Amino acid sequence: MPKREELQNKQLPELATLCERVALDRSCESHLSDYARVLRVEWMLLMASNTPPVPELRKQMEKQQTSLKKRMVDFLAAAPLQLA
Q1: What is the three-class DSSP state of 37?
Q2: By the 8 A CB rule, do 42 and 73 touch?
Q3: Which of 37, 45, 47, 58 fits a 20 to 30 Å CA distance from 20?
Q4: For the segment 32-66, what is each residue's pLDDT rounded down to a tens digit?
Q5: pTM confidence score
């Protein structure tokens, strides 16, 4: 299991990839893989809406990205899996 500090140093795309690995892990409990999939889809939607960013919405998008990163780190730090 990766340490929280290692996860906090990763960028959103790397965290999304780790969430995808959890989502696809057949040995993972279904509620964990389901939540990992939700986080990954949220990241995909956020990135799709971020191209190109509208200046008026930049602060809101930055807040959404920060919130998503925190939830991904919290989830992945607690996941009982080897992701390294």
Answers
A1: helix
A2: no
A3: 58
A4: 999 999 999 999 998 887 666 677 778 888 899 99
A5: 0.82
Question: What is the sign of the dihedral through the CA atoms of 19, 76, 38 and 67?
Answer: negative
Residue 31 burial (CB count, 10 A): 8
Please tell me the distance from the alpha carbon of residue 9 to that of residue 32, in angstroms, as a whole number.
22
Strand (E) or helix (H) holding 71: helix 58-78
Place of tokens 């809406």: 49
| Contact predicate 83/32, CB 8 Å | no
Residue with tokens 């892990």: 25
pLDDT number for residue 1: 59
The more confidently predicted of residues 11 and 82 is 11
Other beta carbons within 10 Å of 14: 12
CA distance 30 to 70: 22
